[in-house]
């Protein structure tokens, strides 16, 4: 067998040489090359002065293993910063920053840093397709123009006109919850039926039917969860993706990621075709598709018909999973902190006399300071996303937090770390304490608000921020107005899945108030 293999490997240039010459050479050359590569990784990137785990300086596979091992914990980069300080070397060519001063230098308008290859994991692939989207693209110019054309569709002034439709969905959700009163309820999953359908209404003015069917349609919720975990792991080492999801051979296996398949299956193609065949008109539906259609009509080279699939994908991942996580964490935190819950309930009772009321966005967002503090504290202590927002230092290098960083280095901040910056948020950063937002001086509060960044930073900040906030404020006020909520297992932590979303699971038990 050894003879045959060696013969094959050498066919064409040295078939007649005795095999015994080659094996000793392979045995020596391979390890020498590996050692040289590891030394180059550790010492050759100009980052040796930055502290970090030894394995991380040698290879990105350290990160893959690290994320695998910690898949059921909150992001452990926080622990690495506690151990190594404000700048941690996370890979041969990557640095994580904990000081909020880094934000402007990495994500500011003048930084000129594109996203890293980490984001490739979130591009369409399979069956011959490979397509960047608004979230993943590393093309700064295409992104800027694309975003400029569609962003009004994500703005509260536009989609806010759909509040009545969302209230109808909330009523359906409450019916499902009422049926479960007194019984164990998978609250995060039930909330996701709502966030999925609400995403459909915001994007396309139609639901997917999760609340009607009361089940995980096409198993997409389960797929998104496992996909988020899987992609977050693979993405840690971009080269890993070449062998797996981004493998050019994947198209021959006919593999299409489930979120993509789902997004395409439920696109309202009839409406899209009809509207595209008509002359440009004023918004008719006040959904996000309005903005995509008008962008396609005026700038088809920037927002092509294919970009509408991006919109479908947004409903499947951030609009359903990230918003579910935000609302679920808020509920869980309130239940862990009875004193805070009493204060929230007192504010709710003073604001709404009717326990069946579905609070309006306007009232929730402007007249309920304690609710506002609870939402902010939820996003601070547990941001829905759990990936470092990686950018690449452009040619010429950059100075970040006083440190020179060479061109080509991947740099970034994780919100979980920034939100634990003690000089900004206080010494008790691991405690859920909404009061910190109310007791702070005007200057300190402004500083905290500037560094509270669950939706990211700068030109790549979340487009769905208004939608995420709209749903979180409304659902929190609605649930605590109507129900007395308890945890089924009060002593147990939430079950955590650290994927690109840090999802949570727990069971609750509701009683009508
Ligand atoms: C609580 C809910 C949400 C959270 C915490 C959240 C968080 C984030 C974060 C941190 C980013 C920045 C990623 C980066 O820099 O790499 C992002 C980007 C994005 N999010 Fe969200 N998101 C939420 C809801 C939504 C919703 C509801 C939508 C759409 C309806 C959405 C659409 C997007 C898009 C399109 C981007 C890419 C923006 C760009 O690069 O220009 N998100 N989100």
TrEMBL record:
Heme binds at residue 462. Belongs to the cytochrome P450 family. The keyword Oxidoreductase applies. The keyword Transmembrane helix applies. This is Putative cytochrome P450. Keywords: Heme, Iron, Membrane, Metal-binding, Monooxygenase, Oxidoreductase, Transmembrane, Transmembrane helix. GO terms for molecular function: heme binding; iron ion binding; monooxygenase activity; oxidoreductase activity, acting on paired donors, with incorporation or reduction of molecular oxygen. Its cofactor is heme. InterPro entries: Cyt_P450, Cyt_P450_CS, Cyt_P450_E_grp-IV, Cyt_P450_sf, Cytochrome_P450_monoxygenase. Gene3D superfamilies: Cytochrome P450. CDD domains: CYP57A1-like (cd11060). The chain crosses the membrane at residues 12-39.
């Amino acid at each position: 067998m050894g003879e045959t293999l060696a013969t094959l490997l050498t066919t064409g240039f040295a078939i007649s040489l005795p095999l015994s010459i080659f094996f000793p050479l392979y045995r020596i050359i391979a390890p020498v090359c590996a050692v040289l590569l590891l030394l180059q990784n550790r010492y050759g990137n100009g980052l040796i002065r930055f502290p970090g785990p030894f394995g991380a300086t040698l290879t990105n596979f350290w990160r893959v293993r690290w994320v695998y091992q910690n898949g059921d914990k909150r992001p452990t980069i926080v622990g690495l910063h506690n151990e190594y300080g404000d700048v941690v070397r996370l890979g041969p060519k990557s640095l994580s920053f904990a000081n909020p001063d880094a934000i402007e230098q990495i994500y500011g308008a003048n930084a000129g840093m594109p996203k890293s290859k980490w984001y490739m994991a979130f591009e369409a692939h399979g069956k011959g397709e490979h397509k960047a989207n608004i979230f993943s693209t590393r093309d700064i110019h295409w992104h800027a123009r694309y975003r400029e054309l569609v962003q009004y569709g994500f703005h509260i002034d536009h989609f806010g006109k759909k509040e009545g439709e969302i209230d109808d969905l909330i009523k359906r959700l409450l019916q499902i919850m009422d049926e479960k009163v007194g019984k164990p309820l998978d609250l995060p999953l039930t909330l996701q039926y709502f966030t999925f359908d609400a995403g459909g209404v915001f994007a396309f003015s139609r639901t997917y039917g999760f609340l009607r069917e009361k089940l995980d349609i096409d198993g997409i919720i389960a797929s998104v969860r496992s996909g988020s975990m899987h992609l977050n792991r693979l993405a840690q080492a971009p080269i890993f993706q070449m062998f797996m999801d981004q493998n050019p051979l994947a198209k021959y296996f006919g593999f299409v990621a489930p979120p993509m398949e789902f997004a395409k299956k439920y696109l309202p193609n009839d409406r899209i075709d009809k509207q595209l065949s008509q002359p440009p008109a004023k918004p008719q539906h006040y959904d996000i598709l309005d903005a995509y259609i008008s962008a396609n009509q005026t700038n088809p080279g920037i927002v092509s018909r294919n970009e509408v699939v991006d919109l479908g994908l947004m409903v499947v991942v951030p609009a359903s999973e990230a918003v579910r996580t935000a609302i679920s964490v808020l509920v869980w935190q309130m239940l862990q902190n009875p004193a805070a819950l009493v204060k929230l309930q007192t504010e709710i009772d003073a604001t709404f006399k009717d326990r069946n009321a579905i609070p309006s966005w306007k009232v929730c967002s402007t007249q309920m300071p304690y609710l506002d503090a609870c939402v902010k504290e939820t996003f601070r202590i547990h941001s829905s996303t759990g990936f470092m927002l990686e950018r690449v230092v452009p040619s010429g290098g950059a100075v970040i937090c006083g440190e020179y960083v060479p061109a080509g280095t991947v740099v970034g901040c994780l919100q979980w770390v920034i939100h634990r910056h003690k000089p900004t948020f206080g010494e008790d950063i691991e405690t859920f304490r909404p009061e910190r937002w109310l007791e702070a001086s005007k200057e300190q509060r402004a500083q905290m608000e500037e560094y509270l960044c669950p939706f990211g930073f700068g030109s790549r900040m979340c487009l769905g921020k208004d939608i995420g906030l709209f749903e979180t404020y409304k659902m929190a006020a609605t649930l605590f107005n109507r129900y007395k909520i308890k945890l089924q297992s009060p002593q147990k932590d939430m079950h955590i899945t650290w994927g690109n979303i840090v999802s949570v699971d727990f069971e609750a038990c509701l009683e009508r108030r």
